[in-house]
Predict the 3D structure of the following.
Amino acid sequence: MYNFILTVVIILSVVMVISILMQPSKQNSAASAFTGGADKLFGKQKARGFEAVMQRATTAIGATWMILLFVLSILSSK
């Protein structure tokens, strides 16, 4: 059981890195460096399409990864 969960965690780690790298960039231009991120605070827009799918996939993979690591730590302490 321990080896199976460890294998799944390693696979999820690689998939999570890939899903993070596939997400589109949030910066629009060089001018965004001067605004200090105020446009993101006040101009909040909902993600759509590919960006929304990637955000949800990354969140689900990250949550599953953390739960499996918690289970793995419990199994390794026994």
About this structure: Helices lie at 2-22, 32-35, 38-42, 50-77. The chain has a mean pLDDT of 83. The two ends are 13 Å apart (CA to CA).
